Amino acid sequence: MFINCKGRLIDLEIPKVMGILNVTPNSFFDGGKYKNESEILSQVEKMLAEGADFIDIGAYSSKPSAEFVSEQEEIERIVPAIELILKHFPETLLSIDTFRAEVAKASIENGAGIINDIAAGELDNKMFEVIAKYNVPYIMMHMRGNPQTMQSLTQYDDIIKEMLFYFSEKVKKARSLGINDLILDPGFGFAKTTDQNFEVMQKMELFNVLELPVLAGISRKSMIYKTLNTIPQEALNGTTFLNTIALTKGAKILRVHDVKEAVECVTLFNKINL
Predict the structure, then answer these.
(1) For labelling, which of 97, 115, 182, 264 has a CA lying 20 to 30 Å from the CA of 142?
(2) What is the model's pLDDT at position 28?
């Protein structure tokens, strides 16, 4: 199971770790921590040293009820971050967390290698065209609505069945456009209640029927800290536990705030399974 990222074949049979870098002032866990060049570079250097395979940059918070950010502002936040990182760490594989085609286009043209779309094209009908044109790996997440409305859209008859249909339709469209490298993200915390998040985790291996790599993004999310009656800052242990469960269910990429601990999960998992 390989993806082609900027001409490099990445073997996802061995799970990989994607470190999160939010260049937003309002993300739920680390918003506002990386405001200037030295802070950004320091965090990227730390994540790469700890073993991150990818760095995922976000310039628009997708937390529930997140405030609107204009397309131009998102580009003005993200492109300088891409340029800065690649100037100092030119081999870094950068993923861009955006649902806007123009942001994806600007990011790819400035050196990004992966697009991570929380809406799988639902919020911008030009996204698939951009991915097809530039032929970059595309992470498609399951969500309903948008960050402002998603938490009111949690009614499902059969959540796994509906998610599988959603993904199968997205894969069909992507394949029709010649998009080769697809990754699925179940979208923990997006248009799902806490109980639904745990049901998706429990049955996550069912997504393997689509024969595509699955990304698990559960780092410090409310399904952890609300269940444990704590706060995001104290949710690392719970994150590590659920990341391990995700690996046993077939996850090929862990998207995390804490790279060192996730890499340790993968190392120990590989000792058992490889």
Answers:
(1) 264
(2) 41
What secondary structure does DSSP assign to 199-254, as a single string?
HHHHTGGGGGGG-S-BEE--TT-HHHHTTTTS-GGG-HHHHHHHHHHHHHTT--EE
221 classed as catalytic: yes
User: DSSP state, 110?
Assistant: T
Q: Kind and range of the H or E element at 171?
A: helix 159-176
C-alpha to C-alpha distance for 22 and 220, rounded to whole angstroms:
14
- The ranges of the chain with pLDDT < 50 are 27-31
- Residue from 221, 226, 249, 271 carrying the catalytic annotation: 221
Give the model's pLDDT for residue 29: 44
**Exposure string for 138-173, b = 16+ CB within 10 A, e = fewer:** bbbbbbbbbbeebbeeeebeebbeebbebbeebbee
Does this model's pTM top 0.90? My answer is yes
Relative orientation angle of helices 71-88 and 37-49, to the nearest 10 degrees: 60
Beta bridge partner(s), residue 58 = 22, 97
Task: Give ∠ CA 154-148-74 in degrees, rounded to 5.
Answer: 135
Active site annotation includes 8: no
Number of other residues whose CB lies within 10 A of the CB of residue 75: 19
Q: Which of 100, 105, 252, 255 is catalytic?
A: 255
